[in-house]
Design a protein that fits this description.
Two copies of one chain form a homodimer. By secondary structure, chain A is of the alpha/beta class. In chain A, strands 12-22-21-14-15-16-17-13 form an eight-stranded mixed sheet. An eight-stranded parallel beta barrel of chain A has the order 24-25-26-27-28-29-30-31, surrounded by six helices. In chain A, α23 (about 580-605) runs parallel beside α27. Chain A is elongated. The two termini of chain A are about 40 Å apart. At the A-B interface, α24, α26, α28, α29 and α31 of A face α24, α26, α28, α29 and α31 of B.
């Protein structure tokens, strides 16, 4: 045997996770530090690999090595395996470097057999000893001998019935003796051999069982999904038992060194006197708060306080500790970083930094972007118990309660009247925006994470669930079927956009926490990050919110939402339906003052910071009624012989024009700068609105900084022409107003060809902004409106793709184009400002990519600005 | 003066086009070879540039240099400018390196004034001299003095009326004297100065006018459109006049050294005795066939024959020659490569090669792919005069006549009855195929060059015009409005798919010519080309046709067209509407024998050659009725209270399912291998059909070589999984039949991500085929069904893009991805076979790109196979 397979706790440290597993490494670390840990040893994770490579056989010398350590334990503790006076009992626990489900449970009290049970009974009470023995057989039978749990439970239940009691702890010593006898019989019958009474054999079988559990199907699947290597292996921890139930001066408990919900610096946990580990969680006796230990066993409590502080200092983090007190003496059974709420994570990290235990960088590493995300939205109170009606895709976090409304107009009407409504639709379209604005939240039965409803809701920071396929919505009847119920308009539901759950009725809510520590942490993040964080904002309100969340400007101001407003849509339609440029210009003339007002407000709200205004992007038919609806109306009128009516003529007219504009693939159609090239008067009006608003603001002493962005450019020529148009309007307004106006014109890189031709496109651009939503659609050939519902969900389930590329930027494919675009653009213009303004701008992994790719900024929805600030700092720290 | 500006004909050669222009270079060449060319000189094209750069001024020394050459001419000919006995007359002609419209017309007889006219009259007859003088003033007044042509015509007309004659040549000497007098008066009145009588002044003004015409607006626009540099400049040719009308032994004519329509090796042309250049084309006298010259002036004819042969040998090509015979002596006024029909181009090239005048490579260079294309389709007889009703996009060449039919079912029905019909639709859809098959041609009012109708028609080699927007089709009334007419079903029209013209009634046709020379030329091309040429073929008939056209296999066999057949559609719909995998498998079970039959036929037709079978690609909703039509039907039935009917239920059911499958952007939706991944049973059935057919054929001794192609792969995983499925079925069928079956599985690279990830995709592929139609759509973000009608046409008009990227592969953008895909794929698998199967596979420029990019083959529609063979050879020659 050339490799050391078994390590005494004294031989390791917390850095030995790969060899000793997480649990083993922490036990070793505490032992090394001199903390009171019951002695024991760890069989290394590598041994597990050797065991498997030998076809489930112990390598030579392993059993001897284990036995040698047992003997060392016996010597040290003055106890012996199988001893009839003072028997050595041990616990056997698995412990891999990464914890995973399906691994073997703990076996406590190994070493018990009829004789040692009597010995234990003499020291700790006979009923307790018998119960331990009964549990040990059951636990061992189940996890080591692979017997069905239910077979044991049937015996237990029969004995309970016979004894006329309801609960196990009401069984007397005689009952337990009977249980044990029948357990042993069962083992003999099912395994064909007697229960192993020899502690050495018990131990070796238990070690073997831990190894075997590494190959159990659940663990294998989990490793596959989480890409955990199969040759990591699991370690086995063998530790002397200590007894928290040995005397009134004994106990056992768990504690956090700080409050894991709030982060407050107080010991938090519970314990039981005269109890063993299991009892604390079994719910038979009610554990007491840890503070009470100070009254019950003051010396032990002082030890606990001291040890907690020491461990926190040692690990530099809040700890989750398991301990046992045997006859007044404290023993530590485990310590690890404590799981905590988002709120606690922030507070603990900031507090630890203030206490000098970690530095600011480490504080930032300690808080995940997801935790910041949770803090920014109200959620459903996890303690509230409500009926979950359905589960959809969690499209936009936050929770909301309201009456069901099935159309945007009612949502708007009720919303204006102060009603709280949830807009429920099969899907939403741009002309539902006025309803979404006034709804508390949105629920759709169709669509994926980046469908219209999802994007709009996320942009507005409104809770949203999409693709909730178990809803059967009947818009005609204004009702929906779900979970065997029929819900009608005005019925109350609640939705939790963070989890995708739909609840019946109103539920308790937890309000968002954005306390002082969060703000402080984000300020530290700002000091560290090198990536700018801008916001996508279409209104002055959005812009103000973004600013309050720390945005360094507006990275994407979409002008189409302004066109959708109810009072403008008729004018927009007039513009679209115009047959001549003259008529179109007349309609645009009416829109000009409105657009100027829009830009005035946003530029003012963002004064001193850049506002990137994207000229009109969506296909024009999005502003017209649906072709199918019109066709149906007309056919019905014809069937009713109403061809003579004014309405019929109007609708026929509208249909003809809507049809002429309708497209097979609008995503790839007549939109973006293609509109601006065919109808330059539209972009001209928008540019004029931008620069007139700017001139007005400058006149009022407001530092307005517009940057004009041309969408969907795929050829340098497109940008050259549209840029020329914008510059011309800029110069005109400059002449007209006599004011020097800032001039920055850039473009979005959102189709592959733009990235490939970035050299020449850069010639005409002051900045690039990657529109990674569309770039993902075109690079993958995925329509985001269709893919998720039709096949992408299955792709993710089947691991055809590792992530939803609309949520997490696809670094393999789309990322190549981004890198190409950056490199080619900068090769022509080294100082080119480059950002990203797709949904990915607010997603942590994608932000890290943007940092590495050398982008200047990310832009995301206002509510994700804090997340992006943190993510950018974390990415900088990873460098 | 450092630069020589004026060149005597003796000083140049045919290689001096850039300096002397095309005409000047050929005059110099003929002079050099010793042919009888009237002497003269050329003012260089560079002089024109200097003239322009000086702000329309003669450079120093130019006038002297010209005059020097005139004096040399005088000396040589014994004539003098302005001489009252034997005056020198010259012609002045423009001549750039590239001929272009808008350039100055020829001026003949320069040097005439009242005195020299009398002198000429004494030598050639007074009436003729007067007419020449009259014409000279008119010509000079118009092109040099910029006077309106109509002003001269009014005078001429008044004199004719006064003289009581109808035609100019009926005017007597007195009448002409009067015309001349009034012309001179008109010049004086309009220009404020007398007509320049001094020959030197006339010459200098004429040279200046040639230079000025370079900057004329028509010429400038033409240069811009054709990307001809503005600083090319035009040369000026000054040449002594010879007189074809000097005696009965004189004449003038034009000839081709071979028949320019058929290519036959006989002199072809016409001439007039006793006539000057103008008269041959003026139409007053009917010219005689050139052969008659042999009877009229035998010696001159012998000279013509000798010179024609000499020039053809010298230039190695068929020549288009202008000549004049003065008193029995032959003079050559111009020679150039003769324009010829496609048919003649092929015959002349092959004949010249056989005659040893050029080699095979040169013969291939001499024929353009467009000429081969013309040979493969019947066309409208260019001599036929028919009313052109409208003009659309020339989507598929060939001409057809037939009765108008507005729906596919009638087209099919009438077609089966032997009627010739033209299917006229706003647009076509996959379920119109059965009608297209039986129609003579297709005409649509919507769509672009690559819309459904265009692609299907091109694939079938059927004439097709799309996007013919001036048609107003009323499907309800079964009529259309066009050019002020109303055409009803059964009215006869003709279409010319090569030009996009729609004619009223039946028109004369020219049948396709694919003679022995074409076949021979293409065999030579095959010897030279290194790029394989395969065909896109979906039926055994297509495959046979492709084979007869020289295809080296099938590069793309689309299986969806098989699903569309009328007898299968119901089974396909059954499969789509199935709720369970079991039901789906039942329907697929019915399709299996049909598919097996399809593959059996194609593999047999292509025996010994590879057949690349693409598994199902289009979105499933393409096989269902249109959602809008269904919605309309249902609404109408509801309005009529027919909800109780069976039909209503059936349609409602169908609508619900069609709606569930409908997509916002089907191009980017649930199609291609995505179908195969979600419904593996579909691909499984197809693979089984392929291999069962192969096994049967091998059993019959037929060398079947299927290659299975997975469409729309964007991630290596997609190919890995679908390939595994195909291999599994292959192995099963191999086991079941006991036959060794060929196994090749490849993929299409048709979305950008596939090209970017070609490294890893190659791991699972035996071959790549670039689907450049879809790759163009995704790389540009252009939907081909929408782009052309909505904005692409304008883009091309406005030169935003130089070419339609769906017609000519976009080498800048899409080409980068192709090159990347090839390089990355081969870096992992050096022997990877790579081809292309988009529409571009049959387009010459794109084929040249494929050759350069190192592809192994192109695949195109059967009718374009000969074009591709030639193009591939030409590309190889360009290397």
């Amino acid at each position: 045997m050339t490799q050391k397979l078994v390590f005494r706790f004294e031989e390791g440290s917390k850095d030995d996770r790969a060899r000793l597993g997480g649990k083993g490494a922490n036990l070793a670390e505490m032992t090394k530090v001199g903390l009171p840990v019951p002695p024991g040893f760890t069989v290394s994770a590598q041994t597990c690999n050797i065991y498997n490579s030998l076809g489930q056989k112990f390598p030579d010398g392993l059993e001897d090595a284990i036995w040698q350590e047992v003997q060392a334990l016996e010597q040290r503790l003055g106890k012996r395996f199988g001893d009839e006076e003072n028997p050595l009992l041990v616990s056997v626990r698995s412990g891999a470097a990464v914890s995973m489900p399906g691994m073997m449970d703990t076996i406590l009290n190994l070493g018990l057999n009829p004789k040692t049970t009597e010995a234990l009974g003499r020291r700790a009470g006979r009923r307790f000893a018998l119960d331990c023995h009964r549990r040990f057989i059951q636990m061992f039978g189940n996890v080591v001998l692979h017997m069905e749990h239910s077979a044991f439970e049937m015996i237990l239940s029969a004995v309970r019935e016979h004894a006329g009691v309801e609960h196990d702890h009401q069984l007397g010593e005689g009952d337990l003796e009977q249980v044990i006898a029948r357990y042993l019989e069962l083992v003999q019958r099912q395994t064909g051999r007697p229960f192993p009474e020899e502690p050495r054999e018990q131990l070796m079988l238990a070690v073997r069982a831990v190894f075997d559990s590494w190959e159990n199907p659940r663990a294998k699947v989990y490793r596959k999904i989480n890409q955990i290597p199969d040759d990591l292996g699991t370690a086995v921890n063998v530790q002397a038992m200590v007894f928290g139930n040995l005397s009134p001066n004994s106990g056992t408990g768990v504690l956090f060194t700080r409050n894991p919900n709030t982060g407050e610096k107080v010991l938090y946990g519970e314990y039981l006197t005269q109890a063993q580990g299991e009892d604390v969680v079994a719910g038979i006796r009610t554990p007491k708060p840890i503070a009470v230990l100070g009254e019950d066993i003051p010396a032990a409590y002082a030890d606990v306080e001291r040890v907690a502080d020491l461990l926190e200092k040692h690990y530099g983090d809040m700890q989750d500790i398991e301990f046992t007190i045997e006859d007044g003496k404290l023993y530590l059974l485990q310590t690890r970083s404590g799981k905590r709420s988002a709120r606690a994570a922030v507070k603990v990290a900031v507090d630890l930094a203030h206490e000098g235990r970690i530095d600011k960088a480490e504080a930032i590493r300690r808080v995940t972007p997801e935790q910041i995300d949770q803090l920014l939205h109200r959620g459903v109170d996890p303690k509230a118990a409500n009926e979950v009606l359905a589960k959809g895709l969690p499209a936009s976090p936050g929770a909301a309660t309201g009456r069901i409304t099935f159309d945007a107009d009612s949502a708007e009407e009720l919303g204006r009247m102060g009603e709280r409504v949830i807009l429920v639709r099969p899907e939403t379209a741009p002309d539902d925006i006025h309803g979404i604005v006034l709804a508390q939240g949105v629920l759709t039965s169709r669509g994926g994470m980046t469908c219209h409803a999802a994007i709009v809701a996320r942009g507005m920071g409104k809770p949203c669930i999409v693709g909730c396929e178990s809803l059967r919505i009947d818009l005609m009847r204004k009702e929906m079927q779900v979970a065997g119920r029929t819900l009608k308009e005005d019925d109350v539901i609640s939705i939790d956009g963070a989890t995708g759950r739909v609840f019946l009725g109103a539920v308790g809510m937890v309000e968002p926490q954005l306390g002082g520590e969060t703000a402080e942490l984000l300020r530290w993040a700002d000091e560290i990050r090198r990536l700018g964080v801008m916001a996508n904002a279409d209104t002055p309100e959005d812009a103000e919110r973004a600013r309050s969340f720390g945005a360094g400007g507006v990275g994407l101001c979409r002008t189409e939402h302004m066109f959708m407003a109810q009072d403008r849509l008729p004018v927009v339609q007039e513009m679209i339906l115009a047959d001549t440029e003259e008529d179109r210009r007349a309609a645009l003339g009416k829109l000009l003052p409105m657009q100027e007002g829009d830009f005035y407000g946003i530029l003012k709200a963002m004064q001193g910071l850049p506002v990137t205004i994207r000229l009109l992007d969506p296909p024009l038919h999005e502003f017209l009624p649906d072709v199918e609806e019109l066709a149906v109306d007309i056919a019905v009128m014809r069937a009713r012989d109403e061809q003579g009516s004014e309405e019929y003529r109007r609708k026929s007219d509208l249909l003809r024009k809507a049809r002429a504009l309708s497209e097979f693939n609008p995503m790839l159609g007549f939109r973006g700068c293609r509109l601006g090239l065919i109808y330059p008067e539209i972009y001209e009006m928008q540019a004029r609105a931008v620069y007139q608003a700017t001139a007005r603001l400058l006149g009022e002493g407001v530092d307005a900084r517009p940057e004009v962005m041309i969408p969907l450019v795929g050829d340098p020529k497109e940008l050259e022409i549209t840029r020329r148009l914008v510059v011309q309007v800029h110069d005109e307004v400059q002449r007209e107003t006599g004011r020097e106006l800032p001039l920055k014109v850039g473009t979005m890189l959102e189709i592959p060809r733009a990235c490939l031709l970035a050299y020449d496109i850069a010639e005409h651009a002051d900045f690039f902004s990657f529109g990674t939503n569309d770039l993902t659609q075109t690079t993958f050939g995925f329509s985001r409106d269709d893919a998720e519902a039709k096949f992408l969900t299955r792709y993710l389930e089947d691991k055809v793709l590792p992530e939803n590329p609309f949520a997490v930027l696809d670094q393999n494919g789309v990322g190549q184009l981004v890198e190409l675009g950056v490199a080619r653009g900068r090769s022509r213009k080294p100082e080119l400002k480059v950002g990203i303004c797709g949904e990915h701008g607010g997603e942590p992994q994608s932000i890290a990519f943007c940092h590495r790719a050398g982008l200047n900024y990310v832009s995301c929805s206002p509510y994700r600005v804090p997340i992006a600030r943190l993510s950018a700092a974390r990415a900088a720290l990873e460098d």
